[in-house]
Amino acid sequence: MQMQSSCSLPRPKSPPMARSSIIPSSLSDGLVFTAGAFLALLIFLGLYSFLSPTPIPNRLFSFSPSFSSTSSHIDDTYDPPDETFYDDPTLTYTIDKSISNWDEKRRHWLKLHPSFSGGRERILMVSGSQPYPCRSYHGDHLLLRSFKNKADYCRLHGIELFYNTALLNPSMNFFWAKIPVIRAAMLAHPEADWIWWVDSDAIFTDMEFSLPLDRYRAHNLVLHGWPELVYKKKSWCSLNAGVFLIRNCQWSFDFMDEWASMGPQSPDYEKWGKLQTSTFKDKMFPNSDDQSGLVYLILTGKGGWRDKIYLENEYYFQGYFAEIVSRLEDITERYIEEEQKGPAVLRRRHAEGVFLSYAKERNAELGKQKGADTGPTGWRRPFVTHYTGCQPCSGDRNKVYSADNCTLGMYKALNFADDQVLRIYGFRHASSVSADVQPLPFDYPRSEE
Amino acid sequence: MQMQSSCSLPRPKSPPMARSSIIPSSLSDGLVFTAGAFLALLIFLGLYSFLSPTPIPNRLFSFSPSFSSTSSHIDDTYDPPDETFYDDPTLTYTIDKSISNWDEKRRHWLKLHPSFSGGRERILMVSGSQPYPCRSYHGDHLLLRSFKNKADYCRLHGIELFYNTALLNPSMNFFWAKIPVIRAAMLAHPEADWIWWVDSDAIFTDMEFSLPLDRYRAHNLVLHGWPELVYKKKSWCSLNAGVFLIRNCQWSFDFMDEWASMGPQSPDYEKWGKLQTSTFKDKMFPNSDDQSGLVYLILTGKGGWRDKIYLENEYYFQGYFAEIVSRLEDITERYIEEEQKGPAVLRRRHAEGVFLSYAKERNAELGKQKGADTGPTGWRRPFVTHYTGCQPCSGDRNKVYSADNCTLGMYKALNFADDQVLRIYGFRHASSVSADVQPLPFDYPRSEE
């Protein structure tokens, strides 16, 4: 369920360490002081790494997994009889009725189920698609492959995945449909610290990358976007609402209530359509949409939500496909070169169960390589490649993209990702768009030199 | 990837506790003695349960989960540098080269990775479909829903799922394609005790049922079938090769080598076609197929494999859809009735994470109900409903089935299963074939009386 149009606004040039908070620049001197201190820290760390014989384990410079998926020992076969929020007849899974005291309710449930607490933060990934066949020929097949792609990522990272094919609120369709699903998922998964919504047309193209959750400690909602485009350009494309992390807490329930109040089921739907259209000159269709609604809340500060919203742009938390797809083959070649000359550990065969051990090795190697950045000029694998505007299911793509760009592009990204998984099973695709696969020789790719 | 034809042979009438071993009746007196002892045991247990005030926790009479999915604490972020089979250049993932000493290789790997051992037996589910879009309109959408169905089952039971869309050996297509995939999966998952192959057209219709793995302790391959049909009818339909459990061990590698030697890539392919056709008078097409090949090995005892093959028919390890689909609505109604009059625990809302706790409660309740058997006359949910012969992807179904039987039938089974999952999220389908969903009231279904 995606928007009709895509965001083709050129990305702003941000310095590598630009803060991605969304607090506008007109704040107090406190911010100026903080900026100064931050710059001093940068200089210090730069000098320190030059002078010190020991590399700084610095997660700001390389996105090593700060989150391990080691499963803790859960007990799923016992539910104590003690009352919890589930036993409250006034609590509903539907979006028409607000939830209150969720943090306390969750805490109480976790106290009764101690095996679900502790260890690393738990993420539930949620995605989905429509409950009937796609109109376009490749549509459902691409959805299937994309679902597999998410399932592969989740299996490698020990993350649970809920793929939904039901329209929970018949009036909240298209891009609005995810909100009732996320809400229901939060109630069904009180053990989840985060819900990670990922659109059906967003593909994981770096299987080895883990979310740097520490960065988001002080926030409740993480999206890909640029503050500059929010405040200066006032663009509806300043962020993307198709991929986000939302914390499982009361703030999020309240936020979703406000967000959903802009939706088609709301009496204020038309009013929001007009307000969004008048605020965002580049908005391409008149009806209220979820993305414009989000930008509006951040831009205006209405409701105070923005303080807890993190706009990430230092890696492809989600990446616009048009700036990625033509580079995938080069990225593949570059990784092959690095593996051929790099340490044997990069080529070592291993069980899928210890995948993250090798992800850690690779990320450490990448951290030493010049140009191994994520972004339009770097050669690091993009984390997520999002085919926003392609509409693979309906076929109603934005006409600035050819069918090839979209369809072939999606197959390319899926194969690019699949190769990272198939490798564990001893195979790879014969080419970037081929369905055929070939066995990998021992010590691949050194054996190919 | 399914067979062209379906098996429409009427199932034999087996007594409820018939042994499903496949050893023919012409063996020694030892078997007679064993049968007598078994009967004595049955009588004893029957009397004991009558006289004893405490119910016997008897897994022979009710399929309570003997397998809990409680995850053990694995460490996926460290792979020791010690050599394992992965470092052996002579070991390949492809089917053309045999594996030897696998049990020792696996044991060695597990010793180096102690966190992957212990606890319950680990299962890896493997399924898959073709790498290009389906010909038929509903095809890919049904595959997507079926994949979701498997992903739901696995998530509820803590089982990993690998969904494959690559043809690993270009000559081994259709039903042969699974063998190279299973083999590669065994190597990629040395921690898995079992690989559970499930065809793409097989749907899990009882989310609460867990495999009774204790039954298969002495066997390496489990399929649904009837010894009577193997030995007396000599039918190619005496078992179904679309759903099976295969132990991750040397026996299985050797077995798959022999099984695969009947495939299209083998120089003996034609010979096997003729041999199978002359042996099984009801075989409907002349080429060698995986299912007839299996029956042949059991019937003749060739290679000695049959001693380790278990033919399960006491529950729908896989169930032929044509004897199930028309009963699904009645089964739904019966479960609703039982929940309305049964204990509150059957209706209690809960987290998805403790699903198995409620599965245990339900299975205990079902154990007390008359007629709650699995089978064509019982009203227990069928474990797996297999649309064999429907060919949803190509559309080339067996003409004894109408498009409605197949397509609509699959949607019915998918909805039937989906309702068991959606319930956890507070919803259900509006009807057995409807894509629409409705919210569930508190204390459903008692609130509907």
From TrEMBL, chains A, B:
InterPro entries tied to this protein: Glyco_trans_34, Nucleotide-diphossugar_trans
GO molecular function annotation: galactosyltransferase activity
Bilayer topology term: Single-pass type II membrane protein
Pfam family, one: Glyco_transf_34
Any GO CC annotation of this UniProt entry: endosome
Compartment(s) where it occurs, according to its Swiss-Prot or TrEMBL record: Golgi apparatus membrane
Membrane-crossing segments per the record: 30-51
Main location: Golgi
Sorted UniProt keywords: Glycoprotein, Glycosyltransferase, Golgi apparatus, Membrane, Signal-anchor, Transferase, Transmembrane, Transmembrane helix
Gene3D superfamilies for the chain: Spore Coat Polysaccharide Biosynthesis Protein SpsA, Chain A
Function: Probable glycosyltransferase that may be involved in the biosynthesis of xyloglucan.
Family named by the database record: Belongs to the glycosyltransferase 34 family.
Record's protein name: Galactosyl transferase GMA12/MNN10 family protein
Organism (species): Rhynchospora pubera
